[in-house]
Amino acid sequence: MNPREAYGTHPEYIGATLGLLGEDAIRLSYDEHREFAATSLNRFPAVGSVRLDWSGADVLDRRDSFDGPTLAALLTAHAGPGELVIVFWDNLLPPSIALPAPLAARHAAAILDEAPTCWLLLTDSGILIEFQDGEGFTTGGPPAAVTARTT
Q: Model's pTM, two decimal places?
């Protein structure tokens, strides 16, 4: 099964969060997921299979805690009014979701309970929050996009 076929086939993996958010959570299509990933996750080199290499990025904040209140505080500090948040999970089986930042902050603990690793993209500012369970949060801007040179 290729990534497009596998994507979003197990929304029950994030069922608790989807149940809390109801219609306020928009399940992204595979193409939407890829479009948002291209402006954020895909700009980072990987360290292992699910960790980002932040060495070329603009790191704004690092937190050693790994709980809902910390994520809520990060979202409150960095999200603009009415900003949309994209939640990427650590695999393609559950769909990525989009929701308003205040709602993500209110349900931060539930979001973190769904997976040991996830990323939250603030769509207006381009800020990305990486969560690694047991390690904490890294917040910052992704490395600049690399453009192809033409001669």
A: 0.93
